[in-house]
Amino acid sequence: MAAAGQLNIVADLRSIEVGEERRFSKKIAAEDVRAFAELTGDHNPLHMDAEFASSTSFQRRVVHGMLVASYVSTMVGMHLPGPGALWTQQNFQWAAPVFIGDQLDFLLRVTQRSEATRTVKIEVKVMNQNGKTVMAGEGSVMLLESKSRSREAALSERVALVSGASRGIGAATARALAKQGAAVAVNYRQSAVEAEELCHLIMGDGGQAIAIQANVADADAVERAVQAARGRFGKPVDVLVNNAGATFAPRTLLEASWQDIEDQLTVDVRGAFNCCKAVLPGMLEGNSGRIVNIGSSLTMGRPPVEWGPFVIAKSALKALTLSLAAELGPRGVRVNMISPGMTETEFISTTSERLRKLEAMQTPLRQLGTADDVANTIVFLCSEAGAHLTGVDIPVCGGNRM
Predict the structure, then answer these.
(1) Side-chain half-sphere of 152: how many Cα atoms within 13 Å?
(2) SS3 call for 208
(3) Which secondary-structure segment (H or E) carries 94?
(4) Strands 21-27 and 85-94, how do they pair?
(5) Radius of gyration of the CA atoms of the chain, in A
(6) What string of H, E and C letters represents the secondary structure of 147-190?
(7) Rounded distance, CA 81 to CA 40, Å?
(8) Which of 134, 215, 337, 365 is the most buried (most CB within 10 A)?
């Protein structure tokens, strides 16, 4: 059997089978008895005084019964089940005395195992050199769970796909991820020139990037894009930022048609769903991944009256975020949402200067957000610093939504 110093990992309950056995032999020396007495304070003359022992029916010093049991404990803690095991119950019977110089053979056998309670039952039998049973019984042992976390890949080791990344928040996010060392797939639908220019900027800064065309509403096109990223960078996509969104002109729900709502849902929700489905096999392969969906702070509190289709779609995207977070958390995939407020991008290019200033003055920080503000928060969620966050919705809006 391995020495104690060689066993430094917690035993795996799943690897322990009913019927599994371990054997151990030990010759009891006078030094073992002396050390046990010093440790426990049990200096009973039956164990420690040869003259006294000779006056009894045993004629010889009798080894402490619990010394024999302690070797069973050693086997439980070091070999079966192994490190991390803790006795919860013992029932031993000492059938015959053990004397100094006896050669003991220990046998432990697993009789039951429960994954629900993380316990195993163990049958114990100890025999001396004459084949006589000196101790027998059973016990229950619990296997403690290790709280240490396996190391996840740093952002610099990951491959990121950012949808709708040719401009605005998507472009800022692609650059921010690349600055942290991630290889970035810059997705675009029509803006090929802008996407290529962004890749040149990233590579000029020493980063890795590739422009990939795909309409996120087309599941087959998204699958091809994900495979192209894997082929280019040699690793699966394990960071996904669902930024692509449909264009929207404010109108009341009375003025809107169902098609207007469906157009928003098709890009914002169906597109995000397609991207998630395409990247998840690679994430689950490595038991690690980050998905960040771009929502809107307009879904928090009372929505504006002319943004119904947009708010409906972003609210549905939040529901998708929460559902995925709950489902994928046990598999190591974190799914979160960023909900920007009014942000200085092309999306608000038709908004009047007066309305922008009014929005800024109603914000505690007295300013509108920038694409970099949003991108930096996304990087946080995708990095090791965001490892214990999933299912959160962070409003990046200067305090306008709290």
Answers:
(1) 23
(2) strand
(3) strand 85-94
(4) unpaired
(5) 33
(6) CCCCCCCCHHHCEEEECCCCCHHHHHHHHHHHHCCCEEEEEECC
(7) 26
(8) 337
Burial readout 37-73 (b: 16 or more C-beta within 10 A, e: otherwise): beeeeeeeeebbeeeebeeeeeeebbbbeebbbebbe
Read off the pLDDT of each residue in 323-334 and give the average, rounded to a whole number. 96
Can you name the residues that pair with 289 across neighbouring β-strands?
A: 333
pLDDT at res. 280: 98
Nearest to 212 by CA among 334, 233, 374: 233
Mean predicted confidence (pLDDT) in 218-246:
97
Pairing of strands 289-294, 159-162: unpaired
| Reported pTM | 0.70
pLDDT of residue 309: 95
State residue 390 phi and psi, 5-degree precision: -150, 145
**Kind of pairing between the strands at 289-294 and 333-340:** parallel
Q: Is the backbone of residue 255 left (phi > 0), alpha (psi -120 to 50) or beta?
A: alpha
Is residue 62 within 8 A of residue 94, CB to CB? The reply is: no
Specify the residue for token string 């409003």.
Answer: 395
| Alpha-carbon gap, residue 133 to 254, rounded angstroms | 88
Residue 199 main-chain phi, psi, to 5 deg: -60, -40
Tell me which residue of 224, 206, 222, 227 sits closest to 272, measured CA to CA: 222
Separation CA 391–CA 191 (nearest Å): 31
| Tokens 């006294």 belong to residue | 52
* Residue 325 to residue 302: CA distance in whole angstroms: 25
C-alpha span between 382 and 178 (Å, rounded): 12
> What DSSP element (H or E) covers 260?
helix 258-265
Mean per-residue pLDDT for 130-147?
91
| Tokens linked to 55 | 């006056």
Structural domains in the chain, sorted by start:
4-143 (3.10.129.10), 155-396 (3.40.50.720)
Q: How confident is the model at residue 5 (pLDDT cuts 50, 70, 90)?
A: very low
**Could you tell me where the beta strands, DSSP code E, fall in 220-332?**
239-242, 289-294
For residue 41, give both structure tokens.
């304070």
Residues in a beta bridge with 133? 127
